[in-house]
Amino acid sequence: MPDTQSTSSSAIQLDDIHLRLSSDAGEVNILRGINLDIKRGETIGLVGPSGSGKTSMLMVIAGLERPTEGAVRVAGNDITHLNEDKLALFRREHTGIVFQNFHLVPTMTALENVALPLEFAGRAHAFEAAREQLDAVGLGHRVEHYPGQLSGGEQQRVALARAFVTEPTILLADEPTGNLDGKTGDTVMELLFDLHKRKGTTLLLITHAPELAKRCSRTLTMADGHIVADETVS
């Protein structure tokens, strides 16, 4: 896929994004005209009450939800009208995603889970790279274990390793510590910021924890489908 604006300093650009979904009660306005420019290498903390549109905005950026109106440009590419196959290829090349619920394949080992996106991409030495990434998150001794044999924190570290193994341009994380205890969550967040620092990946982090948002270079606050505050963290 051609990168038509590879020299752009922007990692993510949203232009007047609206998202309307149907429900039994009628049409629901989820996103109401989002305009956003995130520079390459920025760390963004995305905060706001439940139902404010945070996850929906992340899904639009990831190409997992198509906006009703507006344009989405990620890593210099306009992904607004790409079909599902091209979106899947784009995510594989540019975007790492970490969800609250891990989304590991239960019948695959930690090593196989991390190697999976590399195998889909036809990359050579997929398992060597996966092993190195598991070492980086402190799980080199658990490579042959299945998700059901791992703790929640270990599963989330596997998910982080899988998200980073393709060296994505952008990492999208939706409450990655939401199902973890405080100590384990702190460990996972240290890994997340350390991996960002080493790879220079742009990070968009949805969190309900103000202290995590303050660790980012910039904080966005959403309410009722709008970005209502955009603050640079000093």
Detailed description of the structure:
The strands form two sheets. Strands 6-7-8-3-9-10 form a six-stranded mixed sheet, with helices on both faces. The chain starts with 9 loop residues before the first strand and ends with a strand. α3 crosses α4, α4 crosses α5 and α5 runs parallel beside α6. The protein is 33% helix and 29% strand. With 234 residues, it is an alpha/beta fold. It contains seven helices and ten strands.
* C-alpha-based Rg, rounded: 17 Å
Shape: globular
The parts where pLDDT drops under 50 for at least 5 residues are: 1-7
User: How large a portion of the residues is in β-strands, by DSSP E?
Assistant: 25-35%
Instruction: Output the number of helix runs.
Output: 7
CATH architecture: 3-Layer(aba) Sandwich
Q: Report the helical percentage.
A: 25-40%
CATH class wording: Alpha Beta
Counted up, domains total: 1
Instruction: Please write the string of helix (H) and strand (E) elements.
Output: EEEHEEHEHHHEHEHEE
Q: In what order do the strands lie side by side in the largest sheet?
A: 6-7-8-3-9-10
CATH superfamily heading: P-loop containing nucleotide triphosphate hydrolases
